[in-house]
Amino acid sequence: MRVEAGAQTARDSDRVMGMIADVSDIGREEGRLSVALPYVQASYAVGEDLGLFPPSDDGPSARLMRLPVVPDARGKLSFIEGGRHVPFDIARVYYLYDVPAAATRGGHAHKDLQQLIIALSGSFDVKLDTGRFRRVVQLNRPNVGLLISSMIWREIDNFSSGGICLVLASMPYEEADYYRDYGAFLNACRS
Ligand code: TYD
Q: Using CA positions, which residue lies closest to atom 23 of ligand 1?
């Protein structure tokens, strides 16, 4: 993982931009994520180690994954196999589209669900929060997925025009798997 302030060593189109902050000793607002925190920008080049958040395999984590690409003169093809490119069987696929630029999706965490999120078209920001660490990752390439474990609060916003957010999920939809209240999520993180 490289962490460089605003480094530009590859074409912008080949980069996945993120921002990271350790909020362990910073006061925070209840409810929606506050963006008034001192973020450090991190930058990842596709084809390299795309990084893990937080930088430890212990506990809830998120990871940027490079997906296979089959390019030829007719365009590019990417594919994802459950148990191979994601560490779970794919039980559900859903997608967000026609999202107004000012809208925020998500605003919840999951007790058991794992997901892979892909910007199939356009771009959007994914705000991640483990209860201790926060990070904002912009997804903008259809061959990069963001793998999110259970117990990570996420919000998705800043959709570009035509942005499509594809989600592969490890479980069918189950409302009982959600934490929709941030305080309840924090309590669960600390228990
Ligand atoms: P929600 O998960 O809150 O959406 P988002 O995280 O994108 O903001 O779901 C919004 C509504 O859609 C909610 O009423 C539940 C319903 N829904 C399903 O019926 N099936 C699904 O697979 C998903 C993800 C949501």
A: 173
Look up 108 and say whether it is catalytic: yes
Q: How far is CA 174 from CA 113, 150, 185, in A?
A: 9, 14, 17
| Count of Cβ atoms closer than 10 Å to residue 14 Cβ | 13
Question: How far is Cα 140 from Cα 125, in angstroms, rounded to an integer?
Answer: 9
Determine how many CB atoms are found less than 10 A away from the CB of residue 56. 9
Write out the chain's pLDDT in tens, 191 residues. Answer: 333 333 333 344 344 444 444 433 333 333 334 333 333 344 444 433 446 777 676 789 898 888 899 999 999 999 999 998 899 999 999 999 999 999 999 999 999 999 999 999 999 999 999 998 888 889 999 999 999 999 999 999 999 999 999 999 999 999 999 999 999 999 999 88
Which residues line the pocket of ligand 1, CB cutoff 6 A? 92, 94, 96, 105-106, 173
Reading the block at residue 6, the tokens are 């605003």
Q: Which of 105, 108, 111, 132 is catalytic?
A: 108
Q: pTM for this structure?
A: 0.80
